[in-house]
Design brief:
By secondary structure, this protein is of the alpha/beta class. It is globular, with a radius of gyration of 17 Å.
């Protein structure tokens, strides 16, 4: 049986005076891809921001590899092996591609390892290699998304939080990015994925959680949720 890597227990978060998530219970086992699906405003991004400690929960606990990280500062969470590729990419537009990637490794001081990981990201995303001296703000949307994921991977995470990696991208780029996501799983990276394309998300996920108005309403393995009539009608078109 897989070890539990991440566990949320009765997690509730207020966001701008509104209760964004209410009493969420969620488990991500080591080596899994777990996806959160739901409509805009359901609480998916809030959940990821709370795990990475950008938001403070009103109630509940967050455990990572058995350790209570509910009150931990952001930088410690990164040091322990959680990386967050945020919605909207949030790259540093006035810095080069290379500088963005190097900043992703800010918690590390193993120069040979960082150099090796830069080469690995350039192999995974050849377009970034071609544009490594280019300012990140001049990249296309798809290239910026690749950069956001590659930057998160530079911290060598054990758990990767991916928020809307396909948003606003052309189908070909989306296929490339989901190919990378499957490859990361094969390498042993555990992934918690928030994705508006529910079909794609459930096809590659081991398990999924459906969020509605801040509450988990349906859970199951990816294939089961793909065939669930409630999920199909609400999210699969």
């Amino acid at each position: 049986m897989n070890n539990i890597m991440l566990e949320l227990i009765d997690l509730s978060v207020n966001y701008g005076g509104i209760q964004a998530i209410q009493g969420i219970n969620l488990v991500v086992n080591e080596g899994e891809i777990v996806t959160l699906i739901g409509a805009n405003g359901a609480g998916k991004t809030t959940t990821l921001k709370t795990i990475s400690r950008l938001l403070v929960p009103r109630r509940g606990k967050i455990f990572y590899n058995g350790k209570d990280i509910t009150g931990a500062p952001c930088h410690e969470v990164v040091r322990w092996g959680i990386a967050h590729s945020p919605e909207g990419r949030r790259i540093l537009g006035r810095q080069t591609v290379l500088t963005n990637l190097e900043l992703g490794a800010y918690i590390r001081n193993d120069r040979p390892g960082i150099k090796a990981d830069l080469e690995k990201q350039f192999q995974t995303f050849p377009r970034l290699a071609e544009r490594k001296e280019q300012l990140a703000g001049t990249l296309s949307g798809g290239e910026q998304q690749m950069l956001a994921i590659a930057r998160a991977l530079m911290s060598r995470p054990k758990l990767l939080l991916l928020d809307e990696p396909s948003l606003g991208l052309a189908p070909q780029i989306v296929r490339e990015i989901f190919g990378v996501i499957k490859g990361l799983k094969a390498e042993g990276v555990t992934i918690l994925l928030v994705e508006q394309n529910a079909n794609l998300a459930l096809e590659c996920a081991d398990r999924g959680y459906v969020l509605e108005s801040g509450c988990v309403t349906i859970t199951g393995d990816g294939k089961t949720l793909l065939g669930d009539e409630r999920v199909r009608q609400a999210y699969l078109g």
